[in-house]
Amino acid sequence: MWPPLFVGTLIGAMAIVSETTWLATYGLRPAGRDLDKVRACLLSETEKEEQAQGRGDTERMRLCCVQLFLVGTLADVFLIWRAKRASMDAAVSIDVQLLCGRGLTETKRFLASSTHPLAAGILARIIEGESGVYADFAEFSVERWARQHERYYGLSSVDSTP
Question: 139 burial class (0-12, 13-18, 19+ CB within 10 angstroms)?
Fold first, then answer.
């Protein structure tokens, strides 16, 4: 599968870069020193998308969410959730499963104990996603989702098993 290309994104003083360049620079699993750049990019695109649908780059937002998912820092759940809720396009582009980079159980435990104002709503959506209503988490595993995104971005030669 070919990696989608977005025109580019301007991030503060950073130059406009293509998705290919972004992936070559940071990879799907950015090093700790690069995570703040990924978060800043996601926040910048989210803020633009919140201002007007189509203003932010939802493909870039999705890529940043995938990168944060693969790193699995629980505190990133709130940034990913904000990005997902920025617009209808973002909501469809950013899968709810990307909230659970540390796994379903650990993410739910983290949200249940969090005092963050968004925690209860995110937890409710995840629990709802486990039910028959959405079945978003049927056969969910971090490893399966990692392989799926590696294939999507053309970074893995593993078989096509989801």
Answer: exposed
